[in-house]
Specification:
alpha/beta; globular; 4-stranded antiparallel β-sheet; 228 residues
């Protein structure tokens, strides 16, 4: 049944065509499964080689309508800041004890935040957290004394992105149950943030391709000129 539905979804899409963002989202929503609430994703192929430091694209964007995903947040903090993090709704709070748990294999969270004084402890977890994209970073607002704001932002649907080896950035922009307008607003916010993060070393065409897709559905190519 799933195969038939996917085949039917592909038949609605002209693989040689580029759609406006609104058209692409309508097509994706129309082909989404009714069995569960699929995640809607956006990916952008960029004209960069992230192996060069002056071509790295990395940043954070607040989705206007959230992502529909429940974010589990871990915070490295002590004393008053630890209490502040707990009150803000952090799921896991600790210091050296939390570092030991992570070294022992604990990774049941989606975002790691740290106060600046904890980076000596967190730094030793670089190999573990770095490979998962969880390493706190001041540029992304995850190394900060304002743990309340950082936890609130993560819980509200703030998305981090980073160009992978092939120059691709991607992010979840919501769920199939979101309205088309909500998904379009989130997608437009992500595209705008990535465009503004264009690095100094990027030459020529920056955004080469944009596509949206659902967890189980086909990808739909978006015309970059009609992406906002």
């Amino acid at each position: 049944m799933a195969g038939k539905k996917l085949k039917a979804a592909y038949e609605k899409i002209d693989r040689n065509n580029q759609y406006s963002l609104a058209e692409a989202i309508d097509l994706i929503k129309g082909s989404a499964s009714t069995n569960f609430d699929e995640t809607i994703e956006i990916s952008m192929n960029l004209g960069v080689d992230p192996r060069h430091s002056d071509q790295m694209v990395r940043g954070v964007v607040a989705m206007p309508n959230g992502t529909g995903k429940t974010m589990r947040v871990a915070v490295f903090a002590r004393d008053d800041k630890a209490e502040e993090a707990k009150k803000a709704g952090a799921d896991v709070v600790g210091a050296e004890d939390l570092a030991e748990e992570i070294q022992g294999g604990r990774l049941d969270f989606d975002r790691v935040i740290a106060t600046p004084d904890m980076m000596g402890v967190v730094g030793r977890l670089g190999k573990i957290l770095g490979t998962k994209g969880l390493m706190p970073n001041p540029k992304l607002g995850t190394v900060t004394p304002d743990v309340t704001a950082a936890v609130n932002a993560a819980k509200a649907g703030e998305v981090q992105y980073r160009a992978e080896k092939a120059g691709i950035v991607h992010a979840g922009i919501g769920k199939a149950s979101f309205s088309a307008d909500q998904l379009k607003e989130n997608a437009a916010a992500f595209i705008d943030a990535v465009n503004k993060a264009r690095p100094s070393g990027a030459k020529g065409v920056f955004v080469k391709k944009i596509a949206v897709s659902s967890t189980m559905g086909p990808g739909v190519v978006v015309d970059p000129a009609q992406a906002v």
